[in-house]
Amino acid sequence: MSVSKIGVIGAGTIGRGVAQSLAQSSFEVVLVDIAESQLVSARSQMERDLRMQGLFRAEKLADDAETILGRITTSTEPEALADVDFVVENVTENWDVKREVYETIDKICRPGVVFAVNTSAVPITRVASVTERPAEVLGLHFMNPVPLMDTVEVVRGYFTSDETLAVAMGLLDATSKEGIVVQDAPGFVTNRVLMLTINEAVFCVQDQVATAEDVDRMFKGCFGHKMGPLETGDLIGLDTILNSLTVMYESFKDSKYRPAPLLQKMVDAKLLGRKTSQGFYTY
């Protein structure tokens, strides 16, 4: 299957990163979001990010920012996805929201179009089950910031076909990203481990074992991590951390995934990290 036009659903931090990364690799992109203001904000942020990459990356961009952004069209209507060859969905980690998205686009996109679920915890097989194309559904878990991260967690659901996997791996190869295939289980590999680490770090702050700064300093100084777990949580978004933990807690029925009360309190207070300028740190 030839892929040249890709639909990207959701213009938040990850969605706009996916759109930018695909456009940098010469794909035509249709970026869809329910809010026009979010699309305007996403385009402005992509322009800033591209100009910064052009200034500071050792490897210069093949095209200028204007050319790359010219490959991205935006829309608030899902019908704009009618002629795409591949879809990457990036909406919130909420099953009710995701289900509605897939039930809608399954009727709009032509048969054979692959649906890639960009999720950190929602089971791919569950998503596939609400479509009429379960063999064409898989997970592509992109990491933030998408244009700068070279590896993607590729999740094979129960129904995912070899052909679908090959199309997705070919797409990643065209964007100079390596796909690592894992099997479908809540949290997969990256978030099954990472979310527990971040959550336990939150418990350490909550229980006054150490400050957020000292927790992160130890992970960077003792283990050589580029970022500590709480800095990572702020980058991902504390609401996303909470949603991911909640999905795994409900899926595994295991108390080790119980979100820290401090995490819930910060999300309730809209202290979500970098995207709100305040989380465990001020930005």
**What is the distance, rounded to the nearest whole angstrom, between the alpha carbons of the first and last residues?**
44 Å
Regions with little confidence, pLDDT below 50 for 5+ residues: none
Share of helix among residues? 40-55%
Order of helices and strands: EHEHHEEHEHEEHEHHHHH
Which CATH-level-2 architecture of the largest domain?
3-Layer(aba) Sandwich
Explain what you see.
- The protein folds into two domains: 5-183, Rossmann fold, CATH 3.40.50; 190-276, N-(1-d-carboxylethyl)-l-norvaline Dehydrogenase, domain 2 (Orthogonal Bundle).
- Helices cover 46% and strands 14% of the residues.
- The chain has eleven helices and eight strands.
- The radius of gyration is 19 Å and the shape is globular.
- It starts with a strand and ends in a 15-residue tail after the last helix.
- 43% of the residues are buried.
- The model has no long low-confidence stretch (mean pLDDT 94).
- Pfam families: 3HCDH, 3HCDH_N.
- Residues 187-283 form the 3-hydroxyacyl-CoA dehydrogenase C-terminal domain.
- InterPro entries: 3-OHacyl-CoA_DH (IPR022694), 3-OHacyl-CoA_DH_NAD-bd (IPR006176), 3HC_DH_C (IPR006108), 6-PGluconate_DH-like_C_sf (IPR008927), 6PGD_dom2 (IPR013328), NAD(P)-bd_dom_sf (IPR036291).
